[in-house]
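job 3f2a | input accepted
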Amino acid sequence: MTKTAAFQNELNFFMAHQDELVRAHRGKVLVIRGTEVVGVYSSPLEAYVNAQKSYELGTFMIQPCEPGSEAYTAAVSSACVVV
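job 3f2a | predicted structure (83 res):
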Protein backbone atom coordinates (compact mmCIF):
# COMPACT_ATOMS: atom_id res chain seq x y z
CA MET A 1 0.00 0.00 0.00
CA THR A 2 1.35 3.43 -0.86
CA LYS A 3 1.59 6.17 1.74
CA THR A 4 -1.06 8.11 -0.21
CA ALA A 5 -3.44 5.15 -0.04
CA ALA A 6 -2.76 4.75 3.69
CA PHE A 7 -3.52 8.41 4.27
CA GLN A 8 -6.80 8.04 2.36
CA ASN A 9 -7.73 5.06 4.57
CA GLU A 10 -7.02 7.12 7.68
CA LEU A 11 -9.03 10.08 6.40
CA ASN A 12 -11.91 7.78 5.46
CA PHE A 13 -11.75 6.24 8.93
CA PHE A 14 -11.90 9.67 10.59
CA MET A 15 -14.81 10.80 8.42
CA ALA A 16 -16.76 7.59 9.02
CA HIS A 17 -16.27 7.78 12.80
CA GLN A 18 -16.09 11.55 13.23
CA ASP A 19 -19.24 11.88 15.33
CA GLU A 20 -18.19 9.26 17.88
CA LEU A 21 -14.59 10.50 17.96
CA VAL A 22 -15.74 14.07 18.55
CA ARG A 23 -18.01 12.91 21.39
CA ALA A 24 -15.05 11.21 23.04
CA HIS A 25 -12.16 13.58 22.19
CA ARG A 26 -13.48 16.97 21.05
CA GLY A 27 -10.80 19.64 21.06
CA LYS A 28 -7.95 17.13 21.12
CA VAL A 29 -5.61 16.04 18.34
CA LEU A 30 -5.70 12.42 17.19
CA VAL A 31 -2.95 10.28 15.74
CA ILE A 32 -4.53 7.76 13.37
CA ARG A 33 -2.84 4.78 11.70
CA GLY A 34 -4.99 2.87 9.27
CA THR A 35 -8.28 2.36 11.05
CA GLU A 36 -7.06 2.91 14.61
CA VAL A 37 -6.62 5.91 16.86
CA VAL A 38 -3.17 5.33 18.37
CA GLY A 39 -2.88 8.56 20.34
CA VAL A 40 -4.87 11.49 21.72
CA TYR A 41 -3.01 14.72 22.48
CA SER A 42 -3.57 18.35 23.43
CA SER A 43 -1.73 19.89 20.46
CA PRO A 44 -0.50 18.98 16.97
CA LEU A 45 3.10 19.40 18.14
CA GLU A 46 2.60 17.00 21.05
CA ALA A 47 0.93 14.52 18.68
CA TYR A 48 3.79 14.75 16.18
CA VAL A 49 6.59 14.48 18.74
CA ASN A 50 5.05 11.40 20.35
CA ALA A 51 3.90 9.68 17.15
CA GLN A 52 7.27 9.94 15.40
CA LYS A 53 8.88 8.15 18.35
CA SER A 54 6.86 5.01 17.55
CA TYR A 55 6.00 5.27 13.85
CA GLU A 56 7.85 6.11 10.66
CA LEU A 57 7.06 9.55 9.30
CA GLY A 58 4.42 9.30 6.59
CA THR A 59 2.69 6.32 8.21
CA PHE A 60 0.27 8.18 10.46
CA MET A 61 -2.16 11.06 10.23
CA ILE A 62 -2.45 13.88 12.76
CA GLN A 63 -6.08 14.98 12.88
CA PRO A 64 -7.83 17.72 14.86
CA CYS A 65 -10.87 16.19 16.51
CA GLU A 66 -13.61 18.69 15.70
CA PRO A 67 -17.04 18.42 14.10
CA GLY A 68 -17.75 19.39 10.49
CA SER A 69 -15.81 19.20 7.27
CA GLU A 70 -13.57 22.06 8.40
CA ALA A 71 -11.77 19.52 10.59
CA TYR A 72 -10.40 17.67 7.57
CA THR A 73 -10.14 20.29 4.84
CA ALA A 74 -7.45 22.91 4.39
CA ALA A 75 -6.75 25.80 2.09
CA VAL A 76 -3.16 26.03 0.99
CA SER A 77 -1.81 29.13 -0.70
CA SER A 78 1.50 29.64 -2.40
CA ALA A 79 1.02 33.39 -2.62
CA CYS A 80 4.03 35.47 -1.71
CA VAL A 81 3.50 38.88 -0.20
CA VAL A 82 6.21 41.44 -0.83
CA VAL A 83 6.21 44.53 1.38
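job 3f2a | The chain has one domain: 3-72.
job 3f2a | closed
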